[in-house]
């Protein structure tokens, strides 16, 4: 690591860290001991391995590429004086540890479906009631004649993997088609253009109500920098940019060759990779929307904080009145104007 600040000045016992090594391996655990150039972790998990490693692991500065720290759970409402003065710490994962663990567990607890049995009908029943789902195709050749080998679909708390390898040329999952075509459900699909084109041209499925993180990322970056990046981001790039995940977090999943997604039986490891690619989409959409509408959310927070600051008499008077207080006028932005 280039940063030569002693580790013992940055971290303390009990901190939960995610370490990316120069080997691209990723480990997470709680700090047991820390020195100037050494970190010892307990309750260690290696990324893509759900088992907790039983011993203490020691890592040295010369083998560590990056360190991210998981935030503690938020248990109290932030005070009105500090809520609009937050400074982002680039070393911290931008999810609470509770949310990080929920998503991690969700990616491991997937349901694999390769026929229209009871599991399938239970899955589509739940998906049909969801307001938002994540969708990720796997193994699609980079051509208009490409076919889907596996389709990951996520809800807020579940992941389903629909296998298409043994399907005939027409789209066999009729109920899933209805979900893709309904305007009621938002589909979060990264790099959605090719999938939407293939589904329409090959199967006459017109996917509606799509949120594409790749496109939204371009909007955000153009707003922030005034220009469009020369390269469009993959899903791993976005998890790094918006959640501060290690850059190789989804490397194994993204580097799996299309031909590997055709092989059957599909290994548990490969199923796990597929689940990872769809798990974070809904959380990513939520985070990106808050970023796009940051001025709106900041104004809402500021108005709420105004009420927190009032004494009881002022509170009652303002609530009874329909007049807009000057303090609220001052925090309402002119959206779209520089």
Automatic annotation (TrEMBL):
It comes from the Eukaryota. Transmembrane segments: none annotated. One of its GO terms (cellular component) is PET complex. InterPro entries: 3'-5'_exonuclease_dom (IPR002562), piRNA_biogenesis_EXD1 (IPR052144), RNaseH-like_sf (IPR012337), RNaseH_sf (IPR036397). Pfam families: DNA_pol_A_exo1. GO terms for biological process: piRNA processing. GO terms for molecular function: 3'-5' exonuclease activity; nucleic acid binding. Residues 157-292 form the 3'-5' exonuclease domain. This is PiRNA biogenesis protein EXD1-like. The lineage of its organism: Eukaryota, Metazoa, Ecdysozoa, Arthropoda, Hexapoda. The gene is LOC114338018.
């Amino acid at each position: 690591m280039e940063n030569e600040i002693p580790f013992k000045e940055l971290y303390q016992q009990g901190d939960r860290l995610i370490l990316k090594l120069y080997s691209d391996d990723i480990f997470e655990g709680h700090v047991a001991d820390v020195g100037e150039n050494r970190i010892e972790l307990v309750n260690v998990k290696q990324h893509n391995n759900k088992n907790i490693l039983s011993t203490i692991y020691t890592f040295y500065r010369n083998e560590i590429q990056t360190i991210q720290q998981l935030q503690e759970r938020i248990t109290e409402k932030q005070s009105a004086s500090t809520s609009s003065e937050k400074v982002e710490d680039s070393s911290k994962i931008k999810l609470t540890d509770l949310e990080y663990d929920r998503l991690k567990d969700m990616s491991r607890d997937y349901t694999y479906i390769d026929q229209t049995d009871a599991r399938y009908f239970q899955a589509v029943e739940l998906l049909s009631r969801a307001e938002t789902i994540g969708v990720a195709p796997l193994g699609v050749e980079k051509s208009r004649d490409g076919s889907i080998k596996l389709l990951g679909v996520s809800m807020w708390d579940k992941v389903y993997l629909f296998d298409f390898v043994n399907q005939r040329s027409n789209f066999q999952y009729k109920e899933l088609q209805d979900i893709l075509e309904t305007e009621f459900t938002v589909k979060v699909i990264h790099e959605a253009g090719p999938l939407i084109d293939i589904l329409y041209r090959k199967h006459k499925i017109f996917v509606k109500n799509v949120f594409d993180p790749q496109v939204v990322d371009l909007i955000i970056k153009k707003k922030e920098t005034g220009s469009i990046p020369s390269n469009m981001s993959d899903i791993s790039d976005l998890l790094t940019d918006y959640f501060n995940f290690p850059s190789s977090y989804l490397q194994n999943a993204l580097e799996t060759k299309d031909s590997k997604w055709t092989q059957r039986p599909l290994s548990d490891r490969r199923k796990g990779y597929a689940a990872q690619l769809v798990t974070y989409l809904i959380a990513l959409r939520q985070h990106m929307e808050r970023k796009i509408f940051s001025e709106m959310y900041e104004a809402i927070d500021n108005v709420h904080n105004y009420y927190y600051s009032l004494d009881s008499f002022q509170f009652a008077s303002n609530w009874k009145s329909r007049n807009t207080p000057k303090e609220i006028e001052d925090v309402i932005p002119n959206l779209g104007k520089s």
